[in-house]
Each structure stands twice: as C-alpha cells, then as structure tokens.
Amino acid sequence: MIARATSVKGYQRSNLLDHYIAKSNFCSKIHPIALTLIQLPLLAIVIWMFNNDWIFGSFFVLGALVWPLDWFDGRFARIFGKETQAGAFLDPLVDKIRFLVPITLFFSQIIWLPIIIMFWVIESSLVATRVVKLVSSKRKRKKARIDAFSVGKVKSWGEMIGLLIVFLYYMTEVSFFLWIAYIALIFSLIFACLSLYNHLTK
C-alpha cells in the first residue's frame, strides 16, 4: 500500500499522518470528492442545530467535523493520486458555501454587513472565473488549469478561523473575540482579493 502512494509523481509524504493514510486500505477506498460533498449535509446539520439553539453543538460540528474534512479531501487526493478537475472545482466551491452560508444566516447582525457583501462578491467572482476556465477548456477540448494558489488556502483558513471566533463571541459575548474575528476576516478579505487577482491574471 505504501508503494502505491509513493508512486504518485511529485508527492512526498510529509508527516506520520500521511504515512498512516497511505497504508490504510480503508482510506484508499474513500474518494476525496466524497469527503468534499459530505460537508454539505453536515453544514445543514449545523444550520439546524443553530436554529434550535444548540449553539455549542453547531460550533462543534463545524469546527471538529466539517472543517477538518476540507484538509483531508485534498490530502487524500494527493496521497492516492486522485486529483481531478471536478475535485479542483468542487473543493473551493464547498469552502465558500461552508463559510458564506453560516456567517450570513447566523451573524449578519454581528459582522459589519459591507464585509459580508464584499465576501459574497469576491467569492462569487472566484467561482465565475473557474466556470469560465472550465467552459473555455471544454470548447478547446483541452484540460482546464484550475490552479490552487497558496493565497487561496490562507484565505480559506482565515475565513474559517474568523467564523469560529465569531461563534465564540456569540456564545460568550466577550468583545475580545469579536475584535480577533474582525482581524481574521479582514485579512481573509485581502487574501481573497489576491486570490481573485491570481485567477484573473494566470
């Protein structure tokens, strides 16, 4: 099993967790896209729990279940050589849904509305650029290049950290958490702009 994983070109296992994933028969049977898509029903559970005042439960599901899956789907794809155009498109799309839906439904009265609107505009533009690349490549009968830029990953992590800290503020009403959340979200917004620039120019 390890030999199969190490045969993937350009990928080196960087830590012990990668090693155990690579040698696991169970993990090798899981398609990364399944890990991506399962985040959506889990997000629905988060919304249901929040609306029924199970605030800590929704925070736990989002932070301990949904968010880690975003890390594992890409990891599985690289380790087992299952990187696809569909996965490259769906993974960031689910990232955006996972962030934009909760922050809009739960915290639009806490977070300054123009910031949320700016996130919607930029994230929608990012999705649009990926769709244009896919359609254009299909017409030319070429494989689309949907690159994952490092600034995009930083953006996604910043968004989720900011969202989870907003949860903490909502549960505790400690103003310190709100300030930290704003810092994380503003930095994420900057990286979102950089990510959009990269997609438009490269």
Task: Provide a compact summary of the structure.
With 202 residues, this protein is mainly alpha-helical. The protein has ten helices and no strands.
Structural description of this entry:
- With 202 residues, this protein is mainly alpha-helical.
- It has two domains: 1-82; 84-202, no CATH class.
- Helix content is 80%, strand content 0%.
- The protein has ten helices and no strands.
- The protein has helices at residues 2-6, 16-23, 25-28, 32-37, 39-51, 55-79, 85-107, 113-139, 150-172, 175-201.
- The longest helix has 27 residues, at 113-139.
- The radius of gyration is 18 Å and the shape is globular.
Radius of gyration (Å): 18 Å
Structural domain tally: 2
Strand content: under 5%
Helix content: over 70%
The parts where pLDDT drops under 50 for at least 5 residues are: 1-11
How do the SSEs run, as a string of H and E? HHHHHHHHHH
Structural class: mainly alpha
Mean pLDDT, as a whole number? 86
